Amino acid sequence: MLNRVVLVGRLTRDPELRYTANGAAVAKFTLAVDRNYTNQQGERETDFIFISVWRGLAENCAKYTRKGSLVALEGRIQVSSYDNQEGRKVWTTEVVADSVKFLDSRNSQNSDNNFGENNMGYNNQNQQKKQSSQDPFQSVGKPIDLSDDDLPF
């Protein structure tokens, strides 16, 4: 049997980090993932998926991601239930992630979201990229200047 999930999306809120009675860290957040098709009105719909991350990975997610961060994760679907106050059974579904890749660079989070120190060199590069991106076809046929840090893999 196989229960594997791979998702790429953006956090809808900052991760909520807590610790169990045994001291294990757990972070919970919601991931917004766009669907590959549009609805009848021509709009893309988005799924909001509950994510749980455990131990050191939970602490890293809480430390290095924020609302709006782009992440790729791999994990498994977990379904559980509990009885609510009226005595009815409530079912919950979440993804328990065992691998999370941060797809935003730390520099882009620092400059775009005001996290950490100000990085003027990156801001200047970012301004130049924004100005040159007015015409998306102006560099067709020219070599692309990319560093390894620009690649998401």
Automatic annotation (TrEMBL):
Residues 103-153 are annotated as: Disordered. Keywords: DNA damage, DNA recombination, DNA repair, DNA replication, DNA-binding. One of its GO terms (molecular function) is single-stranded DNA binding. It comes from the Bacteria. One of its GO terms (cellular component) is nucleoid. PROSITE patterns: SSB (PS50935). A motif (Important for interaction with partner proteins) lies at residues 148-153. The keyword DNA damage applies. GO terms for biological process: DNA recombination; DNA repair; DNA replication. It holds the Pfam family SSB. Residues 113-134 have a biased composition (Low complexity). InterPro entries: NA-bd_OB-fold, Primosome_PriB/ssb, ssDNA-bd. HAMAP family: SSB. Homotetramer. Plays an important role in DNA replication, recombination and repair. Binds to ssDNA and to an array of partner proteins to recruit them to their sites of action during DNA metabolism. This is Single-stranded DNA-binding protein. The gene is ssb.
